[in-house]
Design a protein that fits this description.
The protein is α/β, with parallel strands linked by helices. The protein has three domains: 122 residues, Nucleotidyltransferase, domain 5 (2-Layer Sandwich); 131 residues; 117 residues, no CATH class. It has 16 helices and seven strands. A five-stranded mixed sheet has the order 3-2-1-4-5. A two-stranded antiparallel sheet has the order 6-7. It is elongated, with a radius of gyration of 28 Å. The chain starts with a strand and ends in a 7-residue tail after the last helix.
Length: 396
């Protein structure tokens, strides 16, 4: 065993990081703080180099909590500079803190706890897949999700406005957000503006936008509906402005989502993951799952990965009594669970194995949500096998 090992525990925060460096026997060699900038990163490297015994077999392990935007700059810098770095889920560090006799929590104590976790637990190793690319995937997918959520809010507000000034509009159109509908609302956001125009002008505009897919009879129905709708002149001009604004925002988010999809596709290609061979998992869901999981080498078993995703059932045990509530723990990333639920829903419809598994849960009296949760957990176990073995999913 190499005795010349240093364990650098880092407690990350927004503006500064607490550092605790321990040796192989657990003695504290140095405790100090650095700020979140390049100059202080050099200070960390200088301190570590001074503490090393100048032997070629000296090893330094770095550890930190995975605190998202605050840990990413330091983590990526350490990785780029060739250091061995391990990130811990906050659930892990909280659990480790609880086994200590003293329940005190300070930044300096937390950095010492992380250093101890490096000493006693599995140490960081170089990974086959560049973790930083997985970080990129995660951030791209999260930005994409935020854009989708913002677009959804705009769509909901658009429908509310239409229900106010043009009740029944949704029944007139195949889709409120379709190309023809959006073109009509951009030019004539309230029914009074449609009714003020000659029918021929409205028909020609819709005919051109829909590429003659909408019949003249259908356009007449829309026109007549607009004419017969009760006007709200007191707010028509106000609602008109907001409808046009909302449509502009929806189109903006559509463009951003499309651009992000292209970026995700380009990033997925060099990674070459076989995760997309699993039913229900395409490029986007595959990217979401890979980004949220990170390196599969962090997990020594599929069970640990399922627990990381928060898909493990809550168990209450006392003595010989054990009760599984059926509810999942919901620890970890909600984005990961969301992607797995969507993938499981598709997989149960496209793949016979998943369909049989889901149907069996339903036949046993499980609620739809519980059955999908169980199917998502099964899917995740297959994801673990595919990523760990770098082999394609095949139906037996």
């Amino acid at each position: 065993m190499n005795d010349n090992i240093m364990y650098v525990g880092i407690d990350v925060s927004k503006d500064k990081h607490d550092i605790c460096i321990k040796n192989n026997t657990g003695n504290v060699l140095k405790q100090f703080q650095i700020r979140n900038n390049k100059r202080d990163l050099d200070k960390l490297y200088t301190t570590v180099n001074k503490l090393k015994s100048n032997r070629e077999d000296d090893i330094v392990f770095f550890g930190m909590e995975a605190t998202g935007i605050y840990s990413l700059p330091l983590y990526s810098a350490l990785k780029r500079d060739g250091h061995l770095v391990k990130q811990y889920n906050p659930i892990q560090t909280n659990g480790y803190r609880k086994i200590k006799i003293r329940k005190t929590k300070t930044d300096s104590i937390d950095s010492a706890i992380i250093a101890d976790m490096l000493r006693y637990q599995e140490q960081p190793v170089p990974t086959a897949i560049d973790n930083l690319k997985l970080y990129q995937l995660r951030e791209l997918c999260r930005v994409r999700q935020r854009n989708i959520e913002k677009r959804t809010k705009c769509k909901i507000q658009l429908v509310r406005n239409l229900d106010t000034v043009w009740p029944g509009y949704q029944s007139m159109m195949k889709s409120v957000y379709g190309k023809t509908s959006i073109a009509l609302l951009k030019k004539y956001p309230v029914p009074s503006k449609v009714a003020a125009e000659p029918f021929g002008d409205i028909y020609e505009m819709i005919k051109q936008v829909s590429r003659s897919q909408m019949s003249k009879t259908r356009v007449e129905e829309i026109y007549n509906h607009a004419e017969n709708t009760l006007e709200v002149p007191e707010i028509d001009s106000i609602i008109s402005i907001e409808i046009k604004t909302l449509i502009s925002e929806i189109e903006l988010y559509d463009g951003q989502i499309k651009a992000l999809d292209k970026m995700i596709g380009k990033l997925m290609k060099p990674i070459g993951s076989k995760i997309t061979t699993i039913p229900g998992i395409g490029n986007i869901l595959g990217a979401m799952i890979l980004g949220e999981i990170g390196s599969i080498d962090k997990f020594s078993s599929a069970k640990k990965l399922v627990a990381f995703a928060g898909l493990d059932p809550i168990t209450n045990q006392s003595g010989k009594f054990e009760n599984k509530t059926g509810h999942i723990s919901k620890r970890g990333s909600p984005q990961l669970r969301s992607a797995l639920f969507m993938a499981a829903n598709v997989a149960r419809q496209k793949d016979e194995n998943f369909k049989e598994y889901y149907d069996d849960k339903i036949e046993r009296g499980k609620h739809y949500s519980s059955a999908v949760n169980a199917t998502a957990a099964k899917l995740l176990r297959i994801v673990y096998w595919v990523l760990k073995n770098d082999k394609e999913y095949k139906v037996k």
